[in-house]
Amino acid sequence: MQFNKTLEAIALEKDSIEETEDSTKPDVESMNKRAGKEMSQFNNVAFPAGYSIPEECKKPDYKRVITLVQNRNREGTLAKVSVADLKLYCQAPGVRLKVPSNAKKGDLVDAVKKFLG
């Protein structure tokens, strides 16, 4: 943000940089005054004590998908793999196939087959 302000000052030949308040940031203090109790109650209901995000929700399971796709390819049943798993395979480290986000299942299967040889 500071870089943009400096660049603007140079471009417009200003002597000083104007300080501005970022109005896109939430006013947490005001929110807590208005609904702090309700927000706290909601958090206690939605996320009870001891709650932790399940591991499978934190990051994609590339290892499972790589194994699945390689096994299905070896068996000749790659077309039975779901579109979600095929897309995840294309994003996996060491694979990184460039496929459009709106690719059809047939296109994904072809790209994976070509990659795996």
Describe the protein in words.
The chain is built from six helices and no strands. The two termini are 48 Å apart. With 117 residues, the chain is an all-alpha fold. The longest helix is centred in the N-terminal third of the chain and has 19 residues, at 28-46.
The CA-CA distance between the termini, in Å, is: 48 Å
Q: What is the count of helical runs?
A: 6
Counting helices, strands and paired strands, the structural category is mainly alpha
Alpha-carbon Rg, integer: 25 Å
How many DSSP E strands? 0
Shape: flat
Residues in helix, %: 55-70%
Order of helices and strands: HHHHHH
Q: Looking at the chains present, what oligomeric state does this protein adopt?
A: single chain
Strand content: under 5%
Mean pLDDT: 88
Let me know the largest β-sheet. Answer: none
In the predicted model, the low-confidence regions spanning at least 5 consecutive residues are none
